[in-house]
TrEMBL record:
InterPro entries: FAD/NAD-bd_sf, FAD/NAD-binding_dom
Keywords assigned by UniProt, alphabetized: FAD, Flavoprotein, Oxidoreductase
Gene3D superfamilies for this protein: 3.50.50.100
Domain FAD/NAD(P)-binding residue range list: 1-164
Protein name (record): FAD/NAD(P)-binding domain-containing protein
Entry GO terms, CC: cytoplasm
Family membership: Belongs to the FAD-dependent oxidoreductase family.
GO molecular function, one term: electron-transferring-flavoprotein dehydrogenase activity
Length: 235
């Protein structure tokens, strides 16, 4: 059972079915629509397409419901490896030998930020930022945040983190030079590419919906691992 119908949960389901086509997979999502946490929101056409593709793949999808899980039982990989019958908030029973927790969580160590006097800068477990990606209320504007730790108005995705890193790098130089900073252009449309295994999935790029072929070519074959190696390691 996969708890969470965001991109991580759906991509994991796709990889499982690609490796084990006969495996039974149940996805439990607390919202009425999959992929609902995107900022800005994704198109309803895309989220409906993803639901259809996931169900065609063979997964059972339970929407607008939650699983009663003791989070202290999760291991270091956010999993519970144990044959158990779980009960959802609405009373549905799901048998599973493996539970994978794919729910978005706070990106910050609350104790660390509380001890550092930064608690007032937190927003739902993320650091509040100015439009220049400076952390609000601390460091006299000399501390910046980006990626999963930052409340930027953009979805927590590698692509957006990369764009934010470019802004932060530029602003560090401008700050040192005593010049005006460059604002981070928050995306106006929700975009996301969600492969379901190496050959399936779909993508919403704002102006159109990508089919499985293009989704596979762009991301499905390697899940951007080659791009990350090139960007971070120069390989």
């Amino acid at each position: 059972m996969i708890v969470g119908g965001g991109p991580v949960g759906l991509e994991l389901a796709g990889e499982i079915f690609a490796a084990y086509p006969d495996k039974k997979v149940t996805i439990v999502h607390s919202h009425a629509n999959l992929l609902n946490n995107s900022q800005p929101p994704l198109s309803s056409k895309f989220t409906a397409r993803m639901l259809k593709l996931v169900e065609q793949m063979g997964a059972t999808v339970i929407l607008d419901d939650r699983v009663n899980v003791n989070l202290e039982e999760l291991d270091a990989n956010n999993m519970i490896v144990n044959s158990t019958t779980y009960t959802t908030g609405k009373g549905e029973r799901v048998e599973a030998d493996l539970l994978v927790w794919c729910v978005g969580t706070s990106s910050t160590n609350l104790k660390l930020y509380r001890d550092s006097g930064w608690e007032s800068s937190l927003c739902s477990g993320h650091l509040k930022c100015t439009k220049y990606l400076q952390v609000e209320g601390v460091g006299d504007g000399k501390i910046f945040a980006l990626g999963d730790i930052a409340d930027t108005g953009a979805t927590k995705m590698m692509y957006h983190a990369g764009e934010q890193a470019k802004i932060v790098a530029k602003n560090l130089v401008l700050l040192e030079q005593g010049k005006g900073l460059k604002p981070y252009p928050v995306p106006k449309k929700g975009t996301m590419i969600v492969p379901l295994g190496p050959k399936g999935g779909a993508g919403d790029i704002g102006i159109t919906i990508l089919g499985s072929g293009m989704t596979s070519k762009i991301k499905g074959q390697d899940l951007f691992t080659k791009k990350v190696k090139k960007d971070l390691l120069g390989l």
